[in-house]
Amino acid sequence: MSNKGWFNLEAAGGVIPDTQFFEGDSAFKFLGLTKTQRLYGFAGCLIVGFILSILGSVLLFLGQLGSFAVLYIMGTIVSLIGTGFLIGFFKQLKLMFKPVRVVASIVFLASIALVFVAAFVLSNEVLCLIFVIIEYLAYTWYTLSYIPYARTVVTKAVGLG
Length: 161
Prior knowledge:
The protein is mostly helical. Helix content is 68%, strand content 0%.
């Protein structure tokens, strides 16, 4: 087992299992990345996206609505780009618009656009926050669709099922 760094997934378990996240080619196939490097790319995008979103949120509370919207949405987009490292953009789009996820996907994407509208057209901080909350809820609902019975468990837990 060769030492390729402090967090070498391929060396730790021998092989990273082929799951739905590694089926087909990633959007970055032309780079010739290994599965470990693709995971690093995904994690890096997720972390950078989270940091941008947090910085944007801080700016919102400092009264800089436009800067908030730009940083927050950039954070969301960078996080979504990370999925390209795992499964590719086209496969992600196909999965997003399967019948089980289509409503959550449309609400998620619309809420991203509505954050911009609330910030730059309406200049309304409250609406920005509402659309951010809707975005998180839609993304959570979307994510739960990948976990068997997760939506059922959540709806029962909140008393809706």
